[in-house]
Amino acid sequence: RKKPQYPPGPKPHPLLGHLLQIPSIQSWKYFDRLSKQYGPVLRLHLAGSNMIVLNRPEDAEELLGRRSYNYSSRPPLIYAGKYQSNNKRMVLLPYGETLRQQRVAFHQMLQPRVVGAYESMQEMESVKLLFDILQSPRNNIRHCQRFSASLVFYLSYGKRLDDDGDELAAISDVLQNFVQDTTPGAHLVDTLTFLDYLPDFLAPWRRKAMERHQMELKLYTRLVTEVKEKVEKIDSGFECFAARLWDQRDTLNFDTEDIAYVAGTAFEAGTDTTASTIVWFLMAMLLFPDTMRKAQAEIDAVVGSDGKLMPGFLQIKDLPYCVALTKEVFRWAPAAPGGFPHYTELDDEYKGFKIPAKSMVIPCIWSMHHNEVEFQDPYTFDPERFMGKSDEQFDSFAAGHYGFGFGRRQCPGRHLAGKTIWIGVTRLLWAFTIEPALDHQGNPVKVDPNNCTSGMTSRPNDFPVKIRPRSLVHAETIRKEWARQ
Ligand code: HEM
């Protein structure tokens, strides 16, 4: 029997491996190009650590799914995991008891049966989104961010984000630091791990990371302590994620810091991803206006075209094209295109390749979603590809694509996120015509989906778009609905 070899990949630098070859901008497109040259399972190495990139879903499902006992950890991040998060942040946790407990807590809060209870809150926040866009259509990206942040904030802490934006600003700061600090290559110590042995006076980054930890812990602790005070009022019946965590702190074996981070993690993981997906939707409407018209025709046929009645979750089964369109946004422009890295605990062998213990394993979602064999004409935004699959179509917004990841680390917020995007997108389509902005000569300004941010998540950089109400009655209905909330 032939000795297993490493999966193929480009020629590395003798010392640094592929460290300098992997672009920090849109690395997922680089992986996609490599997969066409070397095959779907690739190996790169970064100054001594292995990186295995999976570009086909069948390989990710086998390794991260069926062999999940070995592929469910996360690469240790010294800066963001050990010092900045004090090993409490779920997204970065290695596989083990702490992760298991945190996932149990998330599951109780976000399983499909429970998620149904959040529909009225999702509908209310979506009215606010329409109202905000109606008032100031130019700030559409900020409104999408507020919509997703406010929903997850309410879910976690049982109160709406204040309107002056202070709370959102504080928490967005934490989020931004976290996204930056987990971007591959952000901190040298995560590649050259021996730097962690340096004493404090030679490692100023350590103090910075610990300061960030103190800052975010203070914010997250304040938020969950407020919840605790409400819960402790007799018969308060106060309900939210943090309230349940306080109730179950003994069973889950959580201390205050655990509760603070678990609730904070929901906010961090759920905000940027959801907002980015809605912004991608706006861009898709500019590039593929026929799909917008088709969805609007479907909505009008169900609630009438006079603009007096807004569609809601009651009509979801009558709006299959809007469901398909939501799934197509997840496919066409996944919010986490490079996937979140998994990490192996043991040596393994797959398709004749050796995959050593302590390898970072990246499911490249972007590559999977742009594979012509599974998704014909993959760069075209076409909701029809998700139509006509009978009831299966409504079973889960996570079915039929890979935008929520794999195996035991698959996104626990996917059921909530699917419904949030559906209500947001369907109501935006009901309310507005989304068109290219015009330049000084009156020509439509072109937008480019390649002009997007890079990091764990990705969204289009600001782009001009004209969003106007479909009629005066639509606008009036939005105002009335918002006044009623
Ligand atoms: C459009 C919205 C969303 C997208 C595209 C998305 C996508 C993802 C992906 C790709 C992962 C990594 C899975 C893997 O490692 O294989 C993930 C993890 C995670 N997501 Fe989401 N997500 C979304 C919304 C949410 C929401 C709303 C929440 C919570 C309220 C949430 C909570 C989490 C958490 C806690 C993790 C870490 C799981 C772990 O490490 O075990 N996500 N998400």
From TrEMBL:
Pathway: Secondary metabolite biosynthesis. GO terms for molecular function: heme binding; iron ion binding; monooxygenase activity; oxidoreductase activity, acting on paired donors, with incorporation or reduction of molecular oxygen. Its cofactor is heme. Transmembrane segments: none annotated. It is found in: Membrane. Belongs to the cytochrome P450 family. Its main location: membrane. The keyword Transmembrane helix applies. GO terms for cellular component: membrane. This is Cytochrome P450. Keywords: Glycoprotein, Heme, Iron, Membrane, Metal-binding, Monooxygenase, Oxidoreductase, Signal, Transmembrane, Transmembrane helix. Heme binds at C411. Pfam families: p450. The keyword Ion transport does not apply. It is a single-pass membrane protein. InterPro entries: Cyt_P450 (IPR001128), Cyt_P450_CS (IPR017972), Cyt_P450_E_grp-I (IPR002401), Cyt_P450_sf (IPR036396), Cytochrome_P450_fung (IPR050364). CDD domains: CYP64-like (cd11065). Gene3D superfamilies: Cytochrome P450.
